[in-house]
Every structure is written in structure tokens, then in C-alpha cells.
Here is the input.
Amino acid sequence: MNIQTGIEPARNLISTFHESPRMNQEIYLIGLNHKSAEVDVREQYALPECNPREHGLVSPEGPITEALILSTCNRVEILVVGRTDCDIPRLVSEFWAGECAGELCCLTDHVYTYTGLEAVQHLFAVASSLDSLVLGEPQILGQLKTAYRKALKTKSSKTIINRIIHKAFSVAKRVRTETAIASSAVSISYAAVELAKKIFGDLSQQRAMLIGAGEMAELAATHLLGAGVQTISVANRTLATGEKLAEQFNGTAIPFDRLGDGLVDADIIISSTGAQSAVIRARDMKAVLKKRKHRPMFFIDIAVPRDIDPDVNSLDNVYLYDIDDLKEVIEENRSSRQQEAEKAWNIIGEELEAFSRWLKCLELQPTIVDLYGQGETIARKELRKSLKALGPNADPTAVRAMETLALSLCKKLYHEPVSFLKRRAKEEEAAREFIHVTRRMFNLDREKIPEDAHESRKNRNLKHKRE
Here is the structure.
């Protein structure tokens, strides 16, 4: 299911959202994923370390006020809040291409753009693993949490993105609790091991090596042991981290500078580091193969950018697969999860409606702030007059009591109009009209009102004739 054929409530919300202007700001999501771009494009435009604020995408006075970047092996997505009077998707794409030293035209050929509630719905689907290469895989939620922590640390995430992400987390939790999509899910690592089983059959006599010690490697180790592999080694740039993972699975850790020695003894190699360039090259493998007496080797590269030089696949008795090669394995498991995915989309529709209500209240917020601010200004002005009348020797306790009374009266007087606006904000058509009327009724925009504005039209016409 996708945004075009999604559930009806979500589509109705999306169609009405664009009719309601919101403080001259809009939500945009610009991205590419395994469906829109091959792995070589995804790795070229990966943004694993990009800081939106330090690198100039977000600035207090600029057109983009909030941003979050999600960069994984299967997708790169940039969620932003920006002004509606600017071409925000174009600005984001130019920034993105510049950060990656890539051609803008190449990037735009592969990106997709969602706006408003479409962007929110898409992110909910991503968090719930409905848009993943492997439907229901659990890693994406952890990757989104990591991206959000970075956005908070760099202060590029504020009110709107904070709300979207927290809502995305709760949506993902509901999907995993209320559907069986997680229990029947498979991961990239699982698919990699399934592919190894197709190549070797019985894995009990095969020796495996993991390059990298992150979450993907840990999952791969779990699936390898479940498939019967007896021996696992771990090579990681930080030896202590590699030793910790190896100990967890009764394996051995290999210093990264001795990677070639470890490869001599490995039949199945699953690589998932965060390196920006290949860690295994074809020229390095010739010596390894010679020491192995050309026994077959099976490489699965699940990293983006890729860890293993594609030329390795041209060597005799070497079989190299990357993420895109795992699609066939994954598709075999997809049909069993479609029914649960339908339930998940219904949950997303419900949560999207709740988020839409929050957005409408957010549209109302400036008017509420202005209303209470006007009331407080009037209350303090009148309070100063009264205190002046009491003279300089007024009792401080009485002064504080009068101040409390004035401000309390202000809040109570505006309580009913504000409650009325909040109720009407839930009604799409009525909300804009009532906000407009309230701003004019209380003159919150400080319009200059003619002296004869309240006279009857007849009296104004007579006055103008006399003049």
C-alpha cells in the first residue's frame, strides 16, 4: 500500500490540509529509497554525518526552520519545516547535492517529495516499517531514534518535528502491539543468511565472519547461529566493541588491521560497517584466495556506502551480493505479511487524524497568544492608573493582590472565547473563519480604524457631503 492507494480517511485529511494555510509554514519530506534509486545512487547521496544547522540548511532567519535527516542503507530522507513562499524542495535538493558533491539533476531524477500530511503519513509508515525493503523489519525505528537524537543535539528539531517524531514512535508501538507484522517480520540480516543457505545448503560446516559490530551485525550473528553456523569471528575498527559482540556469540574478535588473515578462514562474510569507502578490494583478495586454495567464499555486503569493491565478484570462486540482491529473498516472505500491513495502515490513518487535529490547534495558537497578550497589556495599563491613584505609600500586599486580581480577571474574561475557538478549530471549514473574525473583533493585527467606523452608513454619507 502506498500514499496513492492508502486508506480513505488519510486521503481525505490530505486533500483538506492544503486548503488551510498555517503561519506561512509547511511540512516537507524529500527523500530517496530502495524503490526510487539503486544502491550506487543511494551510497553517493548518503548523509550519515550531516548537521543541518552547522551546514546551513537550518537558520533562524532562513526559509527552513526545522530539519531532521534520516540516512540508512536503504533510504535517505530529509524532513523539514519551511516557508510556503519558497521552493523548499528545490532548496533542500540543492543543499543535499552540494553536501555529497553530486549532480543536482542526478539526485532529482531519483527523489520523491511529500508535503503536509502526506509527509507525516509517509514518516509514520517508515517508522512502522511499512515502507522498508523488508516489511516489518525492526531496525528502522532504532535508526529513526538515532536521527532524532542528532536533531535534538544540534537543535535543528523544534515544535513541529518534535511532535511528528514522537507521534511516529507511538504509531510504531501501536503497529507492533496491535498487529502481528513484527512477529512475522524478517530483517536484511535474516535475508542475507537465507541467501547463504541457498548457496551452501547446510551451514553447520561453514565458518562465518562479521565485518562491523553494529545492530545489523548482531542480528546477522543471531540468524547465523540459528541456521547452524558453529564458528563466528568479528572484525571491527574498535577492537573492544568487536570483542564484546564476539563474546556474546562465543566467537573470536579479529583486529581490523588483520582483516586479511581472518578472511582466509571465513566461508561466509557479512559486512555492515559505516565506512565511507570499500574495506575489501579485489586486489587484496587474490592473496586470500591463494591461501584458501580457492575454496568458495560468499560475501554479503549490507552496508551503504558499500564495504566491498564490486570487482570482487569477478574473481573465481567468489560470490558477492549486495542489498539489492536480497530483494528476491525478501519478496518470498512479503505475501504472508500483507494482511497485517492493512491493519497497520488503519492505525496510521487514525493517528494521522489525531495529528491533524493538533496541527489545527497549532494554527490557532498565535491568535490565543495575541488575545491573552492584549488582555494582559490592558490589565497592566489600568493597574498602573489605579496604583497611581493610591499614591507612593500604597500597601505592598494590597498592590500584589490588585495585580493578581487584574491578571486573573483578564484570563477569566478570555477563557470562554478561547474555549470556543479551540472547539471550532476541530472543524476545518469553520476554523479559518472564526480565527479571522476573532482577530478583527479584538483588532489583534493593530489595524488603523477610522474615527467614524462605528457610525451608520447614512451618517457617514451626510458627513462626506457636508465636507
Q: What stands out?
A: The beta strands are 25-33, 64-71, 75-83, 112-115, 207-211, 231-236, 252-255, 268-271, 297-301, 318-322. Residues 361-460 form one domain.
